Amino acid sequence: MKTAQEYKESLKKMRPNIYKFGKLIEDVTTDPATKRTVESHSRCFAAAYEPEYEEIFTTISNFTGEKIFRFNSLMMSEADVIGNSKLKRACYRLTGTCTGAVCVGWNCQNTLYAVTYDMDKEYNTNYHQRLESWIKYAQENSLAVAGALTDPKGDRSKKPSQQADLDSNLRIVEVKKDGIVIRGAKVMICGVAASNEIFLLPGGVYGESDKDFAVACVVPRDIDGLTIVETTRPSDLRELEDNFDMPQTGITQAYLMFDNVFVPNERVFMCGEYKYTRDVINYFTSTYRACIGACVAGQGDVMIGAAVLMARANGLSSRVFFDKLINMSINNEVTYGLGIGAIALGKKHPSGVYFPDQLLANVNKVQVATLPYETKRLTQDIAGGIGETGCLPSCQDIENPQYGQLIEKYLKAGEGSGKTRAKIARLIEWLTLGAGVPGTMHGGGSPDGARLFIRALTPFDKYVDYAKKIMNIEEDVKEPEKAK
Amino acid sequence: MKTAQEYKESLKKMRPNIYKFGKLIEDVTTDPATKRTVESHSRCFAAAYEPEYEEIFTTISNFTGEKIFRFNSLMMSEADVIGNSKLKRACYRLTGTCTGAVCVGWNCQNTLYAVTYDMDKEYNTNYHQRLESWIKYAQENSLAVAGALTDPKGDRSKKPSQQADLDSNLRIVEVKKDGIVIRGAKVMICGVAASNEIFLLPGGVYGESDKDFAVACVVPRDIDGLTIVETTRPSDLRELEDNFDMPQTGITQAYLMFDNVFVPNERVFMCGEYKYTRDVINYFTSTYRACIGACVAGQGDVMIGAAVLMARANGLSSRVFFDKLINMSINNEVTYGLGIGAIALGKKHPSGVYFPDQLLANVNKVQVATLPYETKRLTQDIAGGIGETGCLPSCQDIENPQYGQLIEKYLKAGEGSGKTRAKIARLIEWLTLGAGVPGTMHGGGSPDGARLFIRALTPFDKYVDYAKKIMNIEEDVKEPEKAK
Amino acid sequence: MKTAQEYKESLKKMRPNIYKFGKLIEDVTTDPATKRTVESHSRCFAAAYEPEYEEIFTTISNFTGEKIFRFNSLMMSEADVIGNSKLKRACYRLTGTCTGAVCVGWNCQNTLYAVTYDMDKEYNTNYHQRLESWIKYAQENSLAVAGALTDPKGDRSKKPSQQADLDSNLRIVEVKKDGIVIRGAKVMICGVAASNEIFLLPGGVYGESDKDFAVACVVPRDIDGLTIVETTRPSDLRELEDNFDMPQTGITQAYLMFDNVFVPNERVFMCGEYKYTRDVINYFTSTYRACIGACVAGQGDVMIGAAVLMARANGLSSRVFFDKLINMSINNEVTYGLGIGAIALGKKHPSGVYFPDQLLANVNKVQVATLPYETKRLTQDIAGGIGETGCLPSCQDIENPQYGQLIEKYLKAGEGSGKTRAKIARLIEWLTLGAGVPGTMHGGGSPDGARLFIRALTPFDKYVDYAKKIMNIEEDVKEPEKAK
Amino acid sequence: MKTAQEYKESLKKMRPNIYKFGKLIEDVTTDPATKRTVESHSRCFAAAYEPEYEEIFTTISNFTGEKIFRFNSLMMSEADVIGNSKLKRACYRLTGTCTGAVCVGWNCQNTLYAVTYDMDKEYNTNYHQRLESWIKYAQENSLAVAGALTDPKGDRSKKPSQQADLDSNLRIVEVKKDGIVIRGAKVMICGVAASNEIFLLPGGVYGESDKDFAVACVVPRDIDGLTIVETTRPSDLRELEDNFDMPQTGITQAYLMFDNVFVPNERVFMCGEYKYTRDVINYFTSTYRACIGACVAGQGDVMIGAAVLMARANGLSSRVFFDKLINMSINNEVTYGLGIGAIALGKKHPSGVYFPDQLLANVNKVQVATLPYETKRLTQDIAGGIGETGCLPSCQDIENPQYGQLIEKYLKAGEGSGKTRAKIARLIEWLTLGAGVPGTMHGGGSPDGARLFIRALTPFDKYVDYAKKIMNIEEDVKEPEKAK
Asked: Do A157 and C483 touch (CB under 8 A)?
């Protein structure tokens, strides 16, 4: 198990292939555009060495019996998947935002552990063995692994193979004896800058005509032929300087562009078996959508803390706002607890890995796309004007030798200093509007997609039968044929 | 394990002590005021013999290893408490409403199984042994057991011992060698008419001055000195006749008035140990508030079914309403799944029984007091005018020889007959406004009470620390002292 | 202007043609099934003579300059339509529920005042003159006029003329020299039992093939050939007795079945002019949906009052619940104020009558189908267990000589008597679940219908242009053609 | 009436006294930190010359009968205040965000027109005359006037005169013969950089001990002794460059710090008359909170447009999202229409100006603090991943010669180009998370403040009476005395 320091060093050694604001990032651990997300992830490594967090961030390898980072483990039981939830909530509490490289890749490997097991059975392939070897390697090397599903997609009304530009979805362009060549892109991928490797899964359910897009593999982040461009988010230009009102932590998302990248066979876990892309999506989303409730709950916890602090810094008792604070706590616990419920009703796959209940997981995704927005609103409501957008001068102004003292004096309200009040207000902006906002609405799939699952998984006709039996209705009342 | 028939016979034999509409009910199984709730409960007995429901309604006694009704069991694991949830959802699906006598008494005995264990340890009493004996007896005799906590309370600003009328809360008036004498009342108690026995628990957390009110025991429903009055609910006067548009099932709630009732020692499980009333409330509400989500989910399932049926009977495709139906399904699964989450994060008590997580259970109670109201609204929305209140003539009119045919003709819309359409509309009224509405807002305690739990169980100061660490705030920002 | 007494006498004289529970109602003013709604309406007549309400319930006739009941007036200005809103809110405050016979007919006559004006212009008919004469007559005789639009409709996927049973929509079966013969039905019509006359409007927008259904006229409630059946609503069987826990007021809805009813020409205002059915619907719904917000606000006011009372009777300060009471007040004022907004942005029709803005009126209808449900939920929340369903014995039990005193003693909580507490709880049940619930979800049309209006009236493409101009987007981004 | 060009020139001539990011802004019309808000305001000037908008942006002066900008007018009727709402909605539609300098100062002058009228009557002062003169001057010179109420306040538990630092609220430090000297600050003031003058009103209701803080006056933005610091908002560092993905328009807010600023008597309209500070707050908030619904509606219109565009650019039909789009439209129309309702129920002040109904205005403020957040959530929901935070590379990357083409190709989805899709996504970010978000939660006062008004203005006891009369309750049920 690497220390936080060793983890950072492992990133330092990698080939620079990440860009932001038009410039190449030479060292992700020091470049202002990426050092904050690296710091976020490094706190997760560090937490494994703290007694308070050890149980959350470590577990025992089912292969070696050794203690490993939990995010390198296989989740073989209800308790293991609840461990995923707890880790995510802890990550948000420690960093205020998302640490994708200790989350998504983890989920990808578990998903494929089941899918390769089934594929091998049907096709007599040896994907499962390959994956197991890689997982052991990842455990030994404490790898931070990002995960990438989302393709650029191109024209949504057409299949991947029908796109004008076939690169619109990541695809196999050549199958060689010792590996495959892939090209295309994955977009909006979280935590890439802080990762050692990136796990690639198909981004949709494909039929035979799209079998070239049915590809799963894992690649080093700095593999040849891969160009990465970080996205920009509100207020992240502020990150380019080290201001007193900026968190040390952060989040990034990236576009990954693959230009005929060669992936050796031992890192390839699906290559054309399109039939199993459905299972990939089902298994991945079950765990992801059950556990994402813990992410937004963890950020919600920080928002509660920030709101309480802001009230105090405004010179008000936080007790005045208890009704709102309770509502915020309820929102957090609903997404967390409902996810736990999905896990508790889950099932073990023959391969040994455990997946949450799909219906509840998707119901949770809809909550995740709704409740945190209300929590943010309540945070701003409690914060007062200063916590709303555009109500605080920049740090350059607060520290300006000419008039900065004046601003500081006018910022002072309750017991704390004006600068502390400014920092809290800035934290609230960062959490509710700024660079700290995670993309949880569409992350792991859209709420509308989740609703389609819910529709498919709700047994409407069974419910009709219950109603009929209670009312003693014997007549068959059918869906009307379509009106002419 | 009794059959449904044997269960009904056991009720038939009891002493008549229940009144409604000013009249004594001679036989609860045939009197129109109570036969519907008896039918509801009897469906639960019958389900235990159906393969589809057997696993839900039966389990193995931890005492005897014999198969018993699940509602007579001790819940010793996460799976057992999830079993409680599943049973409740099934009960609602089968009856459309609440079957309190296979629910609340069950929870009471589990609560006391833990509390008597702890009391015996401290006080060297033998309550635990007494309770165990009774539970075995209940298992052997397949008893339907109601449970009663809510006292009339009197003036809410005063303690029980301060009330002008001491009977405002159920109390011990005499401790005899072989038993105790109790008087006072329990009110709004569900399922009493369908029960063999009633489990009595203290309705609040008491201090030393109120120790006479710290009483727990179990009594036959027809015990000497107990007078029971059923309450009335909207549309239940219709139950006095057997109309084509009435469900066979039903629900009742009752006022229990104890006039110096003698309870022998072997049925007394708490007698003055006021210190443990807090545990009674905590354990009871944890399980109750986790599992009540399944109740409203089960009724919600029936509402989905009724809404789909109504749409069809109106001549419309239910597909038109899928967005609303999905929202209804989400509401159901949130209360169900969040309760399951509370259970999954629960803990085993040293006595062996298992209790859900208190924070999540109380968060769920708040959802239960909110989401089903929206589900009802959506049911009426989908149903169209005919499903709203006051839009359907009575069955006497529909069957009137003179003009009934005319009404029936005007009721016909889609494929089904006018009468079937009327039955569905009436079911929707029954579920959303009428006699089938269960009292889940305040049942098992009020949402405001649950909010107080949430406030106490949310670690606000820990959340403040998270916020401070993320923003690197070192200054201590305290709650302001109260303004002069 | 009739007194309340004279109004009741006018009803007494009418031919009995109303049935409920299978029986003919001989006198609507004394029969328990209808006397409560008559009492409700009679309070509106009486209010016109009270200084506090005079301005609300009376106005000046634009024809005669005499003081008349406002509900017999033409609404010729913004202030006049606001007067409609204010009257409705007052009616609910005085009766707790809906008084359809001083509301819908009023709206019908105003709608037709505009439509007949336009029809006469195009077709050279003299409908406008006929209507004017009838309105003068109605003013002189202080008529209470119900209004009826909703047809049984039959199979929703077919037009009126395509129905298997042509009676599924009210229609003209014969045009005679001196009048028309109509048959079919109108259903779910409010206030009929308390009305002197009934105004009939087409229930949909019709094309040429359905011109026989384009009929508007006004008929005495007891006209030959008309059979009326009252519907039943939850708890209305209680109305058959005069119990201490029943309001004196009430609401009814009815099925009107026309068996070849002859209507003389002077009472016919549309006869086949199908093209104008669209205007009928547009004008009617504009005013109705703007003003219905006042109805639910008025009932909400009573719910606030009942909730405050209940808290006090429970022995609690209503201050504890102020956050919820404020939310209830907000809900009331939103539906009321938004309706006023719709009126303020309305327009005068060339005929002189004034109609609210259609977009805002329909937006309000959606609020009316949502917010009052939350207000009801809050009422039950504040009320505590006793205000929820099934938590109160019947009045026969409370007054039972044997055990009634006992119940009463257990009902006592705060300062008031047990009986008063029971009355308040019963009022809350009546308002939120029982016979007092008005059918405002679908009354005046369904929220889904309102949403279609909103869709049609929102200028989406204009909004696209705003977005493009702000962002300086010149490229045309079209709706995609449908995917194959 | 100035042209847009003349307006900009008038700003150019002013003394530089505004800072941002630690630097002095020499010319607000060209400095990147302020030029966007100047452009926003200048579009309002320009609109007055466009036929489509002329009626909205101009009116007739009640003093001179000449055509003037509407934002320089006195609002003397319901129609005039509705004109305020319409202007605000138009401003947001044209600029996407807030243009404070054609809004708040306007409201200030109307408020004081009433208050000075009353003060003069009581105190025999000549404030009203002074104000009238200045208004005429403002009309003649087409002044853009910001308005400032919010003081820094300091310790919220103390009055202004009790603050450790008396400057925490703007105050009179000296009354000279020819004018007054003020010091202190106003904070979070919108539109200052685009204003010619700033109208100052007291920020609270004061008693006699705080009479030095009861000051109202108007000052040129560049008056001697005034230092202005612009605040920073998420993503506004991007505004420092002219990127293809930035709107031309913008919003700013500022801290105004007064260092013994002399204001001549003819510009002073309140000087110690503390008793009238309550009226200032009441009148100002009535109009402000009625009309602010139009602001968020206007931005909501742009969000609807942007969402439709985004769907199309994603290659999807916007029809798929109609249910959500209708919900967005409803949210917009509720805040707009409810504000109009408040106006319609308003009253004319003896001075001639017209103020909306206070209860409805405050109810609207609560909606404004809630519904737009849901509209933003829906915008992001419809937009898909690309519209969420952190899902789009910067313009520098999209235009990078090395890999920019690659990003652009992956951004292309439907018919439009990749760059156009990026611009729409960026607009959505700007509207929902970025620099375009207006501070409407606390702008014009907090929703909690509005709730206090609602509580005070709801006649709870009257509502209790309605409930009692309906239920025929004669017993007086009082609030309980406080429990000991």
From this structure: yes
